[in-house]
Amino acid sequence: MKLRADQTGDRGLPMPLWLQGALETAQAAVISALVVIAPIIAVWATAGFQDGHFDTLARLAGQSWLLVHGVPLALTAAGSDTAAHGDAGLLTLVPLGLTLIPFLLAWRAGRRLARASYTDQLWQALLGSWLVYSAFGAATGFVCRTADVGINLGHAMLVPLVPYALGMVIGARREAGSWSRLISVDAVDWISRTSQHSRWAGSYLASAAKAGFVAVVSALALASALLAVDLFIHWNLVVAVYEALDAGAIGGAALTVAQLGYLPNLVVFALAWTSGAGFAMGVGSQVGPLGTAVGPLPSIPVLAAIPSGPLDYAVVALIVPVLAGVLAGWWFLREGENHFDEWLAIKIRARWFTASISTLVLGVLTGLAAGLLAMAAAWLARGSAGIGRLTEIGPDPLWTGVWVAAEVGAGVVIGYAAGPWLERERAAKEEDAELVH
Questions:
Q1: Separation of alpha carbons 296 and 340, rounded Å
Q2: What is the DSSP string of 31-99?
Q3: Considering only CA atoms, which of 190, 210, 212, 197 is closest in space to residue 339?
Q4: Is residue 21 within 8 Å of 113, Cβ to Cβ?
Q5: Which of 26, 140, 141, 320 is the most exposed, fewest CB within 10 Å of its CB?
Q6: Neighbour count for residue 220 (Cβ, 10 Å)
Q7: How many angstroms separate the CA atoms of 125 and 127, rounded?
Q8: DSSP designation for 315
Q9: In percent, how much of the chain has pLDDT > 90?
């Protein structure tokens, strides 16, 4: 990119990398802000706000932009003495679906900056971009603070950098093709200097961690399908809430966009539900396959689909993480290398013993990796609505991780043990297909 060039593009002053990073970031910040502002303007245009003044709407848009980036908002009900009566709290329930917008914009910016930078110069572009985004967040937090919504300027300055910086680094890594080209550190050369036993152990642990990732992704996919079925079954209740709200076409569309923003959160809630850990919808409440006990809920259509009443067969949902573990065990058999099993086979001649122990260890390691990933997902998806009893929403990260780890571990043992039989069946079908042709 050049500051000035003629039609041939051969002359002109090259743009400094820090300035290019700053411009890319400013563009991403403006686009993400416009995405947040658009539904607010649509609702305002249909007289959907009691206070339609420009400054009020601008502050609401800024507060929404900060929440999308994970910045907690300190809510206080109208009145000067409400905080003393417990009517104040933090809004920390982040719409992860909308957080993908700045993440993807940062991913695009990271790729563009990686193309414009040499390996030892990328830090200049990243530093300029992160400084601008941090300043944008701090300015938004400073301007959008009100008596009812408090914003910590430190959080507004630093927290938005988390999804944005992560997106930029992943995008730059995608463009560079390897970490060695990105940061001048050749991991392959470093690994080659280690001992053979270290390389085998590292390869085994890396494969187990990848299998845990496969298990969590599979469990989330199955939980998404189960969530879709649940919404279909309770669609009449969801529509009834929409009709009772009578928000009009624009208001209903804005409400739907907000619910779609929380769709990834709901998928994680569904995963916690299928694991048996369940999730909370308010202080003292519990939603799970073994029982549901919740109090009054806000009039949000999607909440009408929460399973309630007799759940005689809901315990069958506990098989979802187990099936994900089976897929992970099969994946490990096909893609991974069980060096621990090979080492045991050399040390101990009893094959029945070494095969059993290595399979159990694989189940424990993969389950541990899956449990940690599920714990992180539950921590990201949960939060507080700020005021009232809805200060606890979402799954408990620790118990979700424990349940998922145990069930995935059991599934990995089954999948890895049954893998050879599944592979023989697959090979037999391929041979039959070749004979037919």
A1: 53
A2: HHHHHHHHHHHHHHHTT--S---HHHHHHHHHHHHHHHTT--EEEE-SSTTTGGGT-EEEE----HHHH
A3: 197
A4: yes
A5: 26
A6: 20
A7: 6
A8: G
A9: 43
Burial class (CB in 10 A: 0-12, 13-18, 19+), 6: exposed
Find residue 209's DSSP bridge partners.
Answer: none
Q: Tell me how far the alpha carbon of residue 3 is from its chain's centroid.
A: 38
What number of other Cβ atoms are within 10 A of residue 70's Cβ?
Answer: 19
Q: How far apart are CA 172 and CA 339, in angstroms?
A: 33
Residue 269 structure tokens:
């809630």
In angstroms, the Cα distances linking 156 to 37, 55, 70, 162, 367 are: 18, 19, 9, 11, 36
As a whole-number percent, the residues of the chain with pLDDT over 70 amount to: 85
Tokens of 246: 């009578």
Judge contact between 88 and 74, C-beta under 8 A. Answer: yes
The rounded distance, in Å, linking the Cα atoms of 369 and 363 is 10
Q: What is the pLDDT of residues 307-344, one digit of tens each?
A: 876 677 778 889 999 999 999 999 998 887 777 777 77
**Strand (E) or helix (H) holding 286:** strand 286-288
Containing 333, the helix (H) or strand (E) segment is helix 319-335
| Cα separation, 50 vs 42, whole angstroms | 14
Residue type at 278 in one-letter notation: G
What's residue 193's pLDDT?
Answer: 63
How much is the pLDDT for 328?
Answer: 94
Predicted TM-score of the model (pTM): 0.87
149 SS3 class: strand
What is the Cα 283 distance to its own chain's centre?
24
Can you tell me the mean pLDDT for 387-400?
Answer: 90
Question: Which 3-state string (H, E, C) describes 82-103?
Answer: CHHHCCEEEECCCCHHHHHHHH
- Quote the Cα angle for 283-405-316, to 5°: 75
Q: What is the 3-state secondary structure (H, E, C) of 224-244?
A: HHHHHHHHHHCHHHHHHHHHH
Instruction: From residue 188, give the alpha-carbon distance in Å to each of 179, 211, 316.
Output: 10, 22, 45
Task: Report the candidate in 386, 422, 437, 378 with the shortest Cα–Cα distance to residue 402.
Answer: 378
SS3 219: helix
Report how far residue 9's alpha carbon sits from residue 145's, in angstroms, rounded to the nearest whole number.
46
The set of residues, in sequence order, having a beta carbon less than 8 Å from that of 302 and lying 6+ positions away, is 231, 238, 259, 262, 266
**Do the Cβ atoms of 158 and 97 come closer than 8 Å?**
no
The whole-number pLDDT of residue 83 equals 44
Q: In 3-state terms, what secondary structure has residue 292?
A: strand
Nearest to 105 by CA among 13, 183, 29: 29
